Amino acid sequence: MRRLKPPAPDLLEQVVIPAGPIDLGAIFGECPVVLDVGCARARYTVKLGERYPELGVLGVENKLKRVLAGAKRVAAAGRENVRLLCARAEGLFGEILPPASVLAAFFICPDPWPKRRHGRRRLFQPDFVEMVRRALVPGGGLFVKTDDPGYYEWIREVVAGNPRFEPCPEWTAGGTAFDPTITSYYEERHAAEGRETRPLGWSAR
Ligand SMILES: C[S@@+](CC[C@H](N)C(=O)[O-])C[C@H]1O[C@@H](n2cnc3c(N)ncnc32)[C@H](O)[C@@H]1O
Ligand 1 center to residue 88 CA distance, Å? Predict the structure, then answer.
């Protein structure tokens, strides 16, 4: 088994490893908070923090090694409004986030699990989408980008099945117009291979 090098102690200042429900106010103060779910090494997370300095941005990733690499990026960028959390998205929405606590949740290039028999591994399932809805404030945004045409249609159908979401293709939430052209690492990789990454957006009622 490969061993992780212990991280420098100051990197842990950017990382939250929750043992139960978290208090976003204690992390970010009074500002609205947005999530970058499946943030990998936090490239998109930091871009969000730079573009929207008035918001708190919480990047969530289940692989600790990626979280620690992301923490280096956050520290290098000096972003006080960006923090990272090591957790699975299912636990994040099911146990860690209080209801109606988040302005928007971004899912940028979530793992597509393209083989039919792997469909159950996809994050977007009806119960999961309802958990995301509960974590959002009324009018909060669920914003997604994927390069996988099959997953694009799947996500559209699953979210359309939840009557408490309405389409919001313009990516607005709480008076902020989010920019769907900000690119993530995976999106840039897909673009270099000639694959288009398409956005989807909903607003929670
Ligand atoms: C395809 S990558 C996309 C990374 C980044 N959003 C981007 O666009 O560059 C998907 C990321 O989601 C993470 N991930 C997959 N399933 C997850 C889950 N259930 N909870 C949290 N993170 C997850 C993976 O470890 C990986 O870093």
Answer: 9
Pocket test for ligand 1, best of 186, 187, 189, 193 (most atoms within 8 A of CB): 186
The values of phi and psi at residue 177, to 5°, are -95, 110
* Angstrom distances, CA of residue 44 to CA of 35, 116, 202: 11, 29, 20
Would you list the domain boundaries of the chain? 14-204
pLDDT tens, position by position, 186-204:
999 999 999 999 999 999 9
Domain 14-204 CATH (choose: 3.40.50.300, 3.40.50.150, 3.40.50.11030, 3.40.50.2000): 3.40.50.150
Its pTM stands at 0.94
- Contact in structure between 24 and 101 (CB atoms under 8 Å): yes
Q: Ligand 1: which atom is nearest the Cα of residue 189?
A: 9
d(CA 131, CA 148): 23
pLDDT in tens, 59-86: 999 999 999 999 999 999 999 999 999 9
111 included as an active-site residue? yes
Nearest-atom number in ligand 1 for the CA of 112 is: 1
Catalytic residue among 10, 36, 111, 127: 111
